[in-house]
Design goal:
A seven-stranded antiparallel beta sheet has the order 1-2-11-3-4-9-10. The chain has a four-stranded antiparallel beta sheet with strand order 7-6-5-8, with no helix packed on it. The longest helix has 19 residues. It has 187 residues and is an alpha+beta fold. The chain is globular and about 85 Å long. The chain is built from four helices and eleven strands. InterPro entries: LexA/Signal_pep-like_sf (IPR036286), Peptidase_S26 (IPR019533).
Length: 187
């Protein structure tokens, strides 16, 4: 009986949907998703797929950046640890924000040592370190031996004495590897 009174007063009047009118939710939702995708694309740093190497420590040329997991001996494209990145940019070794090309020479469970001017991997001498760069500025040094952890890698251009690599900044985290490099054209 109470419902009848409420119906008569209009308080519980059933609502009817008018024909021809659509709810604007779907277009607004699609527009919102589109804007979110554009925002993500603008903020995300795209990983390079092709790299031109102009450094003398690796053959100059064009390289494909493969997403395949690198293995010992591969050339890789990597970012530097923060301190080494600042030093490389300040001294002009590498422009700020530019990744470097190096060879992956040691992986998890390998033992790397830096003793005096010598660098060893698993007890085998692999490279010499300089005390100063070509302009006479002191180079950073790490000293001692350590077994690389599961997420650590050692990058080194063993045959290039002037290379700014792991002999000066030590091991890097696996997350710093952008990809494995495959030469497309080198000169």
């Amino acid at each position: 009986m109470r419902e009848d009174r409420l119906l008569l007063s209009g308080a519980l009047r059933p609502t009817r949907r008018r024909r021809g009118r659509r709810r604007p939710c779907v277009p607004f939702a699609l527009a919102g998703l589109g804007l979110a995708a554009l925002g993500f694309a603008a903020l995300a740093e795209p990983a390079p797929r092709l790299v031109w190497n102009a450094s003398a420590s690796v053959p100059v040329g064009l390289y494909w950046v493969s997403r395949a997991a690198p293995v010992r001996g591969d050339l890789v494209l990597a970012t530097l640890p923060p301190d080494a990145r600042r030093l490389a940019a300040d001294r002009g070794y590498l422009p700020a924000g530019v990744p470097l090309v190096k060879r992956l020479v040691a992986i998890a469970d390998d033992v790397i040592c830096a003793v005096g001017d010598a660098v060893f991997i698993n007890g085998t001498y692999v490279a010499t370190r300089r005390n100063r760069d070509s302009l006479g500025r002191e180079l950073p040094r790490w000293t001692g031996c350590r077994t690389l952890a599961a997420d650590e890698l050692f990058l080194l251009m063993a045959g290039v004495s002037g290379s700014f690599d792991g002999r000066y900044f030590g091991p890097v985290r696996g997350a710093m590897i952008i990809g494995r490099l495959v030469p497309l054209w080198t000169g």
